[in-house]
């Protein structure tokens, strides 16, 4: 047992009644302690002997509470305010939720707060903000939590309005998993589900926060737009009440607004008696599966809702599969069209000049043949006419074969012979240069085909020679 001398005992008594302020020196990072009356004034640091200003606000930057140095305020609130703080002993940033003075003076709430915070500290789930510690210093009650470097869902909705359907469903799925974990492991409900209490990490993971303040939220009714009917009626609440609030959050993410608006009293009445407007009145891209889930979540009577988060999770998985399959089918169909178009484009590109030459020359050659034969007059019409001239029909077939990409080596040689015959018959034709070019192009096609055929033959012979050599090498040799 430690025994104090007279002077030391007197100092402890004085310190108990004198309110002090501790803050971190901005020059040497050491902790400086002064009286509360010195806020805003400049004092000398006992470690570095430099002048530094005492924080003017109770929880201003550099203020020290126990093991935590406040950096900045990141979340104002009616029940509690959240600060980004640095934990000196473990060298890490944390979120410090400091209760309001109103709650700090409520002894019944403080008892519930400590009990629930300690229970929350045992919850370890990827979609739940981890609670590290709960404590008090100089009448300041606070909860130390995992610091999430991101925005809450309410801020995202206010900035972006409606959110993409697949993104919304992924968030609801993650929070449903968190609620399922809480209900299965501790048989407790959150009682304060709302967008402000859903934090989004940088990698788009949703985390449920505010565990430990549900008793205060219940008494002070700070979340009227998200409150369930049974809570309004003063009935017993359970996990189905959280699912109702999650349904309101689901609705707001899709539409940008809560389903019931007006004064607090009007909202309460609507929760009890009025069906929410169909979400498809706000946007037409919401799948039917989403509507069914929302309708079930927002049923007025708890027995008509999902009885546990597991039922909701099953429907969410089905909706995600259905949505993904539909998107995959659309994407596959779109890709097939692109692939086909690209293939056709590539195929056409290989012989674009040749094909254009074919069609142009068919028209010109047909015209020449008909003029020379003198069987009919030239008449350009959009309608397709039947032409009896065998030579015109021949070149029409040639053009069809070449444009369809079915020009084999054998067919190319046959066309080449036909063109040669045409050139011999009509040496004075004005289309002679184009016909010659056409013939040269076909010769190149034939030569490439013959080279390929020769190369394949050589490769086949080389493989056969190698096979025979292997057989000879493996055969037993006679002495």
Structure description:
By secondary structure, this protein is α+β, with helices and mostly antiparallel strands. The chain has three domains: 6-146, Phosphorylase Kinase, domain 1 (2-Layer Sandwich), CATH 3.30.200.20; 151-328, Transferase(Phosphotransferase), domain 1 (Orthogonal Bundle); 351-379 and 386-467, no CATH class. Helices cover 52% and strands 13% of the residues. The protein has 15 helices and 13 strands. It has helices spanning 6-17, 101-104, 107-121, 153-160, 165-186, 214-220, 229-232, 239-255, 264-273, 288-297, 309-350, 352-373, 390-403, 409-425, 432-474, and strands at 20-24, 31-35, 42-44, 51-53, 64-65, 68-75, 80-87, 92-99, 131-137, 140-146, 151-152, 198-200, 206-208. The strands form four sheets. A six-stranded antiparallel beta sheet has the order 5-6-7-8-10-9. Strands 11-12-13 form a three-stranded antiparallel beta sheet. The chain has a two-stranded antiparallel sheet with strand order 1-2. A hairpin with a 2-residue loop joins β5 and β6 (68-75). α5 (165-186) runs antiparallel to α11, α8 (239-255) crosses α10 and α12 packs antiparallel against α13. The termini are far apart. Residues 1-17 and 374-390 have low confidence and may be disordered.
Taking all residues together, what is the mean pLDDT?
80
Classify the secondary structure makeup into a structural class: alpha+beta
User: N- to C-terminal separation?
Assistant: 107 Å
Instruction: Please bin the fraction of helical residues.
Output: 40-55%
Question: How many beta-strand segments?
Answer: 13
The coarse overall form would be elongated
**Number of separate helices:** 15
- Give the uncertain stretches in residue-range form: 1-17, 374-390
Radius of gyration: 41 Å
Provide the domain count.
3
CATH architecture of the largest domain: Orthogonal Bundle
CATH topology of the largest domain: Transferase(Phosphotransferase), domain 1
CATH class of the largest domain: Mainly Alpha
Major sheet characteristics: 6 strands, antiparallel
**Order of strands across the main sheet:** 5-6-7-8-10-9
């Amino acid at each position: 047992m430690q025994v104090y001398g007279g002077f030391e005992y007197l100092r402890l008594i004085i310190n108990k009644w004198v309110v002090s302020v501790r803050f971190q020196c901005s020059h040497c990072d050491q902790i400086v302690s002064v009286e509360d009356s010195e806020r805003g004034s400049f004092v000398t640091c006992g470690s570095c002997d430099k002048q530094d200003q005492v924080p003017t606000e109770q929880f201003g930057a550099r203020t020290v509470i126990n093991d935590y140095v406040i950096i900045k305020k990141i979340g104002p609130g009616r029940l509690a305010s959240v600060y980004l703080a640095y934990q000196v002993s473990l060298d890490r940033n944390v979120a410090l939720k400091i209760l309001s003075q109103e709650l700090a003076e409520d002894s019944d709430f403080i008892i519930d707060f400590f009990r629930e915070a300690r229970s929350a500290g045992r919850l370890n789930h990827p979609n739940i903000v981890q609670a590290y510690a709960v404590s008090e210093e100089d009448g300041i009650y606070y909860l130390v939590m995992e610091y999430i470097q991101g925005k809450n869902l309410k801020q995202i909705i206010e900035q972006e309005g409606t959110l993409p359907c697949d993104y919304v469903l992924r968030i609801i799925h993650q929070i449903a998993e968190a609620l399922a974990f809480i209900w299965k492991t501790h048989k407790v409900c959150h009682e304060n589900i709302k967008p402000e209490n859903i934090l989004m990490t940088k990698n788009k993971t949703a985390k449920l926060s505010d565990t430990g303040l549900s008793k205060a939220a219940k008494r002070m009714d700070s979340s009227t737009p998200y409150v369930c009917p049974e809570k309004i009626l003063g009935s017993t609440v359970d996990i189905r009440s959280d699912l109702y609030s999650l349904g309101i959050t689901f609705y707001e993410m899709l539409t940008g607004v809560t389903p019931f608006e007006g004064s607090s009293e009007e909202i309460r009445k609507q929760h009890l008696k009025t069906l929410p407007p169909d979400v498809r009145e706000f946007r037409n891209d919401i799948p039917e599966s989403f509507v069914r889930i929302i309708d079930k979540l927002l049923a007025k009577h708890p027995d008509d809702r999902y009885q546990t988060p597991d039922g909701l999770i099953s429907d969410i998985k089905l909706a995600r599969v259905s949505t993904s399959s539909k998107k995959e089918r659309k994407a596959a169909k779109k890709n097939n069209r692109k692939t086909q178009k690209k293939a056709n484009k590539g195929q056409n590109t290989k012989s674009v000049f040749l094909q254009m030459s074919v069609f142009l020359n068919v028209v010109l050659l047909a015209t020449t043949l008909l003029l020379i034969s003198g069987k009919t007059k030239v008449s350009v019409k959009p309608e397709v006419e039947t032409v009896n001239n065998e030579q015109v029909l021949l070149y029409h077939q040639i053009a069809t074969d070449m444009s369809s990409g079915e020009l084999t080596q054998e067919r190319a040689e046959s066309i080449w012979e036909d063109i040669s015959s045409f050139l011999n018959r009509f040496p004075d034709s004005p289309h002679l240069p184009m016909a010659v070019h056409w013939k040269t192009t076909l010769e190149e096609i034939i030569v490439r085909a013959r080279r390929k055929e020769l190369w394949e033959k050589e490769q086949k012979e080389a493989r056969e020679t190698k096979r025979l050599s292997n057989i000879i090498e493996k055969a037993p040799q006679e002495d």
